[in-house]
Amino acid sequence: MRDSNPSHTALRDDALDQLFREARTHYAWTDKPVPDETLEALYDLVKMGPTSMNNSPARFVFLSSEAAKARLRPYLMDGNVEKTMTAPVTVIVAWDTEFYENMPKLFPHFDGARDMMKNAAEDHGIRNGTLQGAYLILAARSLGLDTGPMSGFSIEGVDKEFFKSDPARSSWTTNFLVNLGYGSGENLFPRLPRLSFDEAATIL
């Protein structure tokens, strides 16, 4: 039988560079498309990340057509328009305010899971949905994609345009956006400072 945790081997430096140390927020993109198969593979990685009681509240809308992008454009701040319209894909990272309805499927061994999550739906939804959005960024980088996560848009406008009039998604609400593609390397800002371990962490 195969051991599910065979080694816990640390990733090599080149992998860590790709995921963290050399990864950047991108603002300009090449024309190389992102196939639907890659987006499906991306989600298949994201869904494996841990969430509270496997509640998985995040929902993802991949805008890859010009028509879909055009629907988003009116709700972007001016500074976010060009980098979004030129990205091969923009992901609306949302969360389902009624995610708890899926708890019998996602956490079947505990009958009280649905009610527990419903009673604290906003806290669990925002926290775990944001966590899954972060998984999306790292999973995309692991697949060789570049990312440009951002706020700077109207949540109310995006919700109205993409969710409120759609019965299948009327309980979804937007968290943030992520541009996906293959960055050109243009318009990158210099790497900004980070806090040191002693400034941001402690060991007790």
Could you explain how this protein is built, in words?
It is a single chain. This protein is an alpha+beta fold. The chain has a single domain (23-181), classed as NADH Oxidase. The chain is 40% helix and 14% strand. It contains nine helices and four strands, in the order H-H-E-H-H-E-H-H-H-E-H-E-H. The protein has helices at 13-21, 36-46, 66-72, 78-85, 103-106, 113-118, 121-142, 155-164, 197-200, and strands spanning 58-63, 89-96, 146-150, 172-181. Strands 1-2-4-3 form a four-stranded antiparallel sheet, sandwiched between helices. Helix 1 packs across helix 7 and helix 2 packs across helix 7. The protein is globular, with a radius of gyration of 19 Å. It starts with 12 loop residues before the first helix and ends with a helix.
Q: Work out the oligomeric state of the chains in this entry.
A: single chain
What percent strand?
5-15%
First and last CA, distance: 39 Å
Work out the helix count.
9
The ordered string of helix (H) and strand (E) elements is HHEHHEHHHEHEH
Give the proportion of residues in helices: 25-40%
CATH class: Alpha Beta
Q: Low-confidence parts lasting 5 or more residues at pLDDT below 50?
A: none
Shape: globular
CATH topology: NADH Oxidase
CATH architecture: 3-Layer(aba) Sandwich
Widest beta sheet: strand line-up: 1-2-4-3
Radius of gyration: 19 Å
**Strand runs, count:** 4
- Biggest sheet record: 4 strands, antiparallel
